């Protein structure tokens, strides 16, 4: 049996100002509690400008409670057609706050995909639109349902259903990731072996290739030098032979100056009688 995901509680203005100090203290039994930034600022505003004395008293009491409560503020935000304000409509301050809180709650749920976000509000239009958002870790309940959950420990049906949905989605995601990892592990030997061999033999092959190139260049240069010397020797020998037959006397003197053995004199043409 899978473990239920952690619960994060996000409270609306209507849920907070309709509760007492004792109830606020009990809310943390369910999970970590969060307040939208705009809701906190509105409560702070109401501490001195509330239209009713009872609301002003509750606002002041909450501002004293919050600093040491362990609760946190969130400024998350995300838009969705289901919670978008009507185009071209001029909204009142209260209506703008409702839309802003709904978008904050939706954005907060998107930021916490592994946690179940429970939005507590008495604003029915928001609660009715939450299912159409298609977010598996997000659900909404009224303050009365939340208070009963706190005191009896029995989850509201909306929370139970959403926990099952989130667990199912999480299990399907985990199975998909496991299959992908298994396939990757199975394919790793055939795919990585050539890479490893190439990486290991690369430097040695490069060294052998460089050595072979040097040897080839040295052998080629030596062959060209020998070929050039042979060609030069042939040319010189041919010139000497030609010189000997064309001008034998001067060739003989040159030959003797070099200290080389005497060459037999070229026979002269016989004189005709």
How is this structure best described in words?
It is a single chain. The chain has 9 helices and 5 strands, in the order βααβααβαβαβααα. By secondary structure, the chain is an alpha/beta fold. Strands 3-2-1-4-5 form a 5-stranded parallel β-sheet, with helices on both faces. Helix 6 (124-129) links the parallel strand 4 (116-120) and strand 5 (138-141). The longest helix is centred in the last third of the chain and has 90 residues, at 157-246. The termini are far apart. The relative contact order is 0.09.
In a nutshell, what does this entry contain?
The protein is an alpha/beta fold and 273 residues long. It contains nine helices and five strands.
Q: What is the general shape?
A: rod-shaped
Distance between the termini: 138 Å
**Biggest beta sheet attributes:** 5 strands, parallel
Number of strands: 5
* Class from secondary-structure proportions: alpha/beta
Question: What is the arithmetic mean of pLDDT?
Answer: 79
Pattern of helices and strands: EHHEHHEHEHEHHH
Strand content: 5-15%
What does the radius of gyration come to?
A: 49 Å
């Amino acid at each position: 049996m899978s473990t239920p995901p952690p619960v994060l509680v996000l409270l609306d203005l209507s849920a907070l100002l309709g509760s007492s100090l004792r109830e606020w203290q009990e809310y943390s039994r369910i999970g970590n509690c969060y307040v939208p930034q705009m809701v906190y600022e509105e409560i702070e505003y109401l501490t001195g400008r509330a239209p009713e004395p009872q609301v002003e008293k509750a606002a002041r009491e909450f501002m004293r409670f919050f600093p040491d409560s362990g609760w946190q503020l969130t400024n998350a935000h995300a838009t969705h057609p289901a919670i978008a304000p009507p185009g071209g409509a001029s909204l009142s301050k209260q209506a703008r706050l409702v839309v802003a809180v709904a978008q904050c709650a939706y954005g907060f749920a998107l930021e916490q995909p592994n946690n179940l976000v429970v939005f507590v509000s008495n604003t029915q239009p928001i609660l009715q639109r939450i299912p159409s958002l298609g977010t598996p870790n997000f659900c909404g309940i009224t303050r009365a349902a939340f208070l009963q959950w706190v005191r009896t420990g029995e989850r509201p049906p909306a929370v139970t259903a959403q926990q099952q949905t989130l667990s199912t989605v999480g299990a399907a995601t985990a199975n998909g990731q496991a299959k992908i990892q298994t396939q990757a592990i199975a394919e790793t030997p055939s795919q990585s072996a050539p890479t490893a061999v190439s990486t290991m033999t690369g430097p040695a092959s490069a060294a052998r290739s460089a050595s072979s190139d040097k040897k080839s260049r040295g052998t080629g240069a030596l062959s060209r030098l020998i070929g050039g010397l042979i060609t030069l020797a042939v040319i010189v020998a041919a010139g000497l032979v030609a010189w000997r037959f064309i001008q034998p006397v001067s060739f003989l003197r040159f030959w003797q100056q070099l200290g080389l053995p005497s060459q037999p004199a070229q026979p002269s043409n016989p004189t005709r009688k």
